[in-house]
Write a structure and sequence with these properties.
Aminopeptidase, 381 residues, 27% strand, 2 domains, alpha+beta, 13 strands, globular
Amino acid sequence: MPDRVVVTAASPGDRAAESEFIAYPYQLYKDSPNWVPWFRADMRAIVRRRHPFFGHAQAEFLLARRDGRTVGRICVVQNSRYIQQHGIQTAHFYFADYPDDPAVSDALFAAAVRWARDRGLTHLSGPLLFGGATGSGVLIRGFEQRAAMTMMPYNYPYYREHMQRLGFEKDVDLLSWRMDPKAFVLPERVRSVAEKVLERGRFKVLRFSSKRQIKRIATEVAALYNTTLGDHPEDYPLSEGELQQLIKDLLQVADPLLIKILTYDDRYVGYLLAFPDVSAAMQRAAGRLTPWSILDLMREFKRTRSIVINGAGILPEYQRLGGNALLYYELERTARLRDPLHADLTQVAETTTLMVRDLETLGAEIYKIHRMYRRPLMINR
């Protein structure tokens, strides 16, 4: 009979436990060609609660051990901004990593449930942490494809079975789309609408040649995130500190040529954020930023032939004025920049039915599905 699994908290200041929490997935995914690690410095900032997220969220980082050896991990959080926006008293989990061993997943989620119940919360949902920028959900389709940097989670196929066994039910699916630049062609009707609204002069598309230009307007544009995505089930309105952190993080991997901002009468109303996919270099770096790994990341930035689109939105009141057509017009153009083999649009909620229908019409294909789960805490397992 295997030894009992014991779950303990990686308490603030416990450097050994923090290191175990950060290191465990390298053990679990050591044979996976498709898992992409977070940078360890970023993980330390999270585990030590130094990210602006923790200005409005409480968290516990939990380790599962068997016979003194780490065999799993999970983070559970109470995000007050999410609760206020969506009106549900839910905790969220993230960084849930474990082997195909029910004893381990049972122990981890039992500890997460206790933590949530102690705070008077009624549900446990996830995976979700910072919202769309870091990706959400359990991967249920597309295991043969590498994760897009840290903009989406990766996990083994058995996770879905564990979630169902633990009493979780589907909340919402997040669909990631792959576009072949040669096959992704706008219908003439959509192209005509986009060109006409540009001719009228009220809509404009801002393009950039340097990160300095982007920085000048970044704060004003970032506010669009909350308006266009804050009410989606996988998102919440970010705090000012989180928006500034998001700007900093995204600028690190931004190619100015791939960033497009839509204006109407000089007001910022929409955005299209695409990035060179440097996942291969991140895998080679194994979470460590050294002079060599930084040089490798810079080289990958220039040579990669994959683009990741991790942000596309327009204020609702401008969608019917031709804004949607213009957004897709720019999406087609962006998908062909840098001569990519493919461009991937990450994690579109299935509940955005208009965008899902439009992407299907335009010839994009779903290549990954991540599922967010929810479980009421009155269920005893």
